[in-house]
Design goal:
Distance between the termini: 37 Å
Number of domains: 1
Strand content: 5-15%
Strand order of the largest sheet: 1-2-3
Helix content: 55-70%
Number of strands: 3
Largest sheet: 3 strands, antiparallel
């Protein structure tokens, strides 16, 4: 296994996500204050969104996305993909795998929480669970578009990207990634 080049970024990529999930699960055990639990989980989710969007996506996967509004008030989505030289592939491939696993698995956990909350009729928690799904799904959506070059057809993108990512994560030696050099910027 390759050594991690960015252990701090890898740690924080997972720390805020896992902390939000664990805090949501264990909140009733540690506190009887709904507001305190709600704010704590929402703060962790917000820190996760910011750190993934602005730091760990760029450092671990070489991807960035953001929205820019021009002088006419028109919104432009910008997607960046840094291409890594082949000499750095081994170290960054493991980090990218961790990045994508965290990005895909955690929103699925929040979706399970949504149905659990809905069916157990704990409706006061529903807003928090929807916030968790929304923040994590927004990052996932942005990074999928970023990885696929900024194409806005999400059904085509997800049908080809998600299975490929899952298989690459499960069997990394069976898939080859193209050589990467430079930086690509796509606007949509």
């Amino acid at each position: 296994m390759a050594s991690r080049r960015h252990p701090l970024a890898t740690f924080f990529h997972l720390f805020f996500r896992v902390s939000a999930i664990l805090t949501y699960l264990c909140c009733d055990w540690f506190s009887s204050s709904f507001v305190g639990c709600f704010v704590t989980v929402l703060l962790l989710l917000s820190l996760d969104f910011w750190s993934v969007k602005n730091v760990t996506g760029r450092v671990l996967a070489g991807l960035r996305w953001w929205n820019q509004i021009d002088e006419d008030g028109k919104s432009h989505w910008i997607f960046e993909a840094r291409k890594v030289p082949a000499s750095n592939m081994a170290a960054t491939e493991a980090e990218a795998r961790i990045f994508w696993l965290g990005l895909i698995i955690c929103p699925m956990i929040w979706i399970v929480f949504f149905f659990s909350t809905l069916f157990s009729l704990k409706l006061k928690w529903l807003a928090l669970v929807i916030a968790g799904i929304s923040l994590q799904a927004a990052n996932l959506y942005g990074y999928i578009l970023c990885k696929m070059g900024g194409d806005g057809d999400i059904s085509r993108v997800t049908s080809s990207f998600l299975p490929q990512t899952v298989f690459q994560t499960a069997c990394p030696d069976d898939f080859q990634k193209p050589g990467l050099e430079g930086l690509e910027i796509h606007q949509h």
